[in-house]
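Q: Structure for this?
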Amino acid sequence: MSESNCCAETPACCWYTAAKEVQTVSTTLTTSDMLGAWKVRWGFGRMEYMVEPGLYAIGSPDGNAPVLVSANYKLTFDVLRQSLSGMDCWLLILDTDGVNVWCAAGKGTFGTEELVSRMTQTGLAEVVTHRQLILPQLGAPGIASHEVAKRTGFNVIFGPVRARDIKGFITAGYQATREMRMVEFTFWDRLVLVPMEFVPAMQITMPILGALLLSNQFAARPFDKVDITAYTGAVVTGSVLTPLLLPYIPGKAFSLKGWLLGLGWVVSLLTLSRRFAKGNLLRSAGQVLLFPALSAYLAMNFTGSSTYTSPSGVKKEMERSLPLICTASILGGIMLLVSHLFGRSKKQ
Amino acid sequence: MTLTYLKDVVTLSFSPSKCIGCGLCTMVCPHGVFAMKEKEVQIVNRDACMECGACALNCPAKAIEVDAGVGCAAAIITGWITGGEPSCDCAGPQKKSRCC
């Protein structure tokens, strides 16, 4: 991450005699940075992926160089420094416990208090001669700019949402275009989030599958490949396909979107496998009730990762859909178990 | 393709009489809910509001109120179970959270 103890090789921070060591960081990522990013996207060591809070230098900043504020999630830190190649500036990294700017601002850890105390701790007022901070726009839910100005004398400028727009923002004289201020939720944005939906869902699915296969030993009518496929397919539909296809599925509520896709999946599979024939009806009806409800529930959990759902909206969605999801799951589950344990097998 | 969520649910309220027209809310809002029209702020896309609270916190005139929080089903369920506020810390405040 860091080049080295900066004072040994870059004069940049040596003129700064406030005696606190400032590290100069590179604007290019190493293979291990990229591997680290990939790992946390899949949930490995995600809550411990952080850098030391404090002041860092990019290039050879002096007392007039801009100060950019960010969070100590290493993924955030890496995206930010990568977008600053060729620039001379200061990075003030707040302690957000390794959480990204937006979520940390929502929790208040990327907040006015932490900013003010980190400024004092790093002696920022002696490092720079100007009195201006550039904050990421998504830090605004945690940082009251007028409070910061009152307490530190520093003027807060909210920069663009995305790090890749920072250079454009600075060259335009600290002006952000409308696009720079808007949060999106592109296919790519959703794709990088999907592993964190899929992995936890599978962590629950695998033991259940194992238990079901074990129960086949004493079942009157064991679960077969179609049943297993229907189940795992419903998990994938809710946790992977619904997030990816989000804008293209009818409805506004995530659970409705997930349910529609799950219903499409189960009905198609059962139709193709000729499971709506006599003798299979109880099991198939159980699956049509249970599996789309499961997809709906998993899809609803994606509200937490989305960039546009309000808590009031999610509450309303849940009040409407959770009773339906629960009823359908319980009924469907009972029908499946009855068919599993007591149903007559056609083949015998 | 623009994604929009449920209509007429958000708790956002704006008092034009208190507004001093600084326009900061139009800058911090990530969904273009506010716009400046002839030196006055107006709500132009209320249903796009996600109740993040950035506007209210940064309004020096306290002209905006919103019941801010996290729009996350898992967080709300955790809030129901523990009887507390919905929180991003899925695993509870003591343990490290898995979301966000």
